[in-house]
């Protein structure tokens, strides 16, 4: 059985940081919840400083969302490989996440509501 996916507007202002820099801030972020997985914040591409992102050759496929493209974050001190993903042509059921980017939180990448 497919996990239930819900997409809602994320309340408040959300920010993503990496390498000491703010990569983006948005009041229009989306929150995607999928089954028992932790919720994921999707930022509108227009709210992200994409100059920090470098397209990766890595891809993945989700039977519920479609094919994901990945990006690495290039900071002054390091490159954080495949830390960002996007569904360029998501399946109809999750079409709201088109033109949005999601980030893997880690020691190097912070996604938080401010």
What would your notes on this structure say?
With 114 residues, the chain is mainly β. The protein has a single domain, classed as Domain of unknown function (DUF427) (Metal Binding Protein, Guanine Nucleotide Exchange Factor, Chain A). The chain is 0% helix and 54% strand. The protein has no helices and ten strands. A seven-stranded antiparallel sheet has the order 1-4-5-9-8-7-6, with no helix packed on it. Strands 3-2-10 form a three-stranded antiparallel sheet, with no helix packed on it. β6 and β7 form a beta hairpin. 29% of the residues are buried. The mean pLDDT is 95. It holds the Pfam family NTP_transf_9. InterPro entries: DUF427, DUF427_sf.
CATH architect. name: Beta Complex
**Integer average pLDDT:** 95
Share of residues in helices = under 10%
Number of helices: 0
CATH superfamily: Domain of unknown function (DUF427)
Name of the CATH class: Mainly Beta
- Order of strands side by side in the largest beta sheet? 1-4-5-9-8-7-6
Give the overall shape.
Answer: globular
What CATH calls the topology is Metal Binding Protein, Guanine Nucleotide Exchange Factor, Chain A
Largest sheet: 7 strands, antiparallel
Strand content: over 45%
Calculate Rg over CA atoms: 14 Å
In the residues, how many domains can be counted? 1
* CA-CA gap between termini: 36 Å
